[in-house]
Amino acid sequence: MNIEPANEADAPVKEARLWRDDGWTARVIKNEDDDGWAVAMTRQGESEPALVGPWTMGRDKKNPKPLDTAAFNTLVKTASEVIRRHEQQLHATLHREAAVESPTGRITVTLDIVPDEDEPHAMLAARDVAGDELARLRVPAGFRLTPASAAAWVDAGYARPAAAAID
Description:
A hairpin with a 6-residue loop joins strand 7 and strand 8. This protein folds into two domains: 8-67, no CATH class; 94-158. The protein is of the alpha+beta class. The longest helix has 26 residues, at 69-94. It is 21% helix and 35% strand. 14% of the residues are buried. It is elongated. The chain contains two helices and nine strands; from the N terminus they run βββββαββββα. The chain has a five-stranded antiparallel β-sheet with strand order 1-2-3-4-5, with helices on one face. The chain has helices at 69-94, 147-155; strands at residues 13-14, 18-21, 24-30, 37-43, 51-55, 95-102, 105-114, 121-127, 133-140.
């Protein structure tokens, strides 16, 4: 059974300066800042490279070293790690959490910011130890989740927080 790529852009390419496989494209490009070379790693479907870094000169000290399987695999691993770290940083920026002790046990209060261009907001939620959602409320994106604001929200029976908790 012969499985053809969905289109030519999906077909593997293994050239000295262009390598495409497994959803990634490595392209060796002239470094605009000096006489050297760089490699750009772009994930399929993305318009911007996830990683751009220096590339080794070949033996003639004029042309770039050709791409090969080992180098491509290393570049994929590195670019994937860059994307993973970026996603973790974005999650940390957009997600806050505070634990509150209540008479019924520990309650975890979370704030997830929704960076919508037209209507940025956040979702404030409370979960018990079992993970069951106790409350969910839409709040302004500038809401400040602190241990004190989380405790005040829980103590108030999950009523809409006062404007003082908002930047």
